[in-house]
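Q: Got one fold?
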Amino acid sequence: MTRIALLLCLLYTAGFAGAQTIELKELSGLLDLSINKLESQLQKKGFRRGFLYDAENLITPSYMRTGKDALNPVVQNIQKTEGEESSVLYQTSSEQEFNALTAQLKAEGFSSSKRMVSGKEYILYQRESLSIESFRQQIDTMRFYCFRANRKKLPGPKEINQAEDLLRIDGHEYLAAVFGRQNIREDVFHYTEEESNKCTVLFPNSSREVIYIWNDEESKRELSFVLVGGNLLSKKSESANLQAHNAWGSAQGIYCGMSLKELEKLNGEPISFYNWHTESAGYLTPKNKGAIDFEKIGLVFSCLNCDFVEASQEDIITSNEAQAKSQKIFVSTMIILPGKGKQEGSVR
């Protein structure tokens, strides 16, 4: 028996009521129900427990119903998973219902972005902690129109105290949910005059200003790194410059404005960085060692008097050499890195 035949057999033998459309509010509300409550509510609406093949070709429990039209029944299927991000997959064979739900998403002010995977189109709709991805799926001879809804469990603003805590929020809409839409701004971060990346600025024009750099620029999520302090936005940007003495501090004891001497004492070993005449002036070099975990944080330095004191012509300078020449160097920017394996200063 084919998969679609198995599905239709389960549907027809379950004695479903006439198919009805699912509204956006109803779909998102399913995310708040436990599996037991979900099953109870769906059964009242004519859904019955069945089984369906998932993307990995495994049979998983589903809740299904079909319409009364024997010649062209509308088939609807719901699956629920629970975890850090609760998820509901809704599949309908009705293109009209698909279009109606899409229209509701747009009317409710969800942002949207498109991606193509192996020639298949996915559209992601986002609004604060809720995201809904739509796509089409062919199962044997039947086409399904699908919506996968997710709600991210987010920390409260009082839980975000140190710079590393900022990594817990990995999307533009998630930032809006936690801190308020009035406290975020879309912008562009410029690596060079030719290279740039879309970003989100949190708390612009304040001592708590932060830049989020996204791997997925269109959806503005999948965090690449977070920038705290300094003046790293291009002058072309309409956002205010970051404050040198930013209020965010690192859990490792580092803060913007910290002197190189204090940093070296904290690290317990000398620190090397690129000299001021190089393209990466002030950035940490790879493979610094010591008490500081440089796989979790990158640093950029500024100097108050380096235009007026004797400077080394080497491309790399150490904290010992800089202090011997009385260079007044301090931490201007912290680069907070998610996970292991990234090199410090990788903003370059």
About this structure: Residues 157-336 form a domain with the protein yfey like fold fold (CATH 2.60.460). DSSP finds seven helices and 16 strands in the chain. Confidence is low (pLDDT under 50) at residues 1-18, 234-243, 341-348.
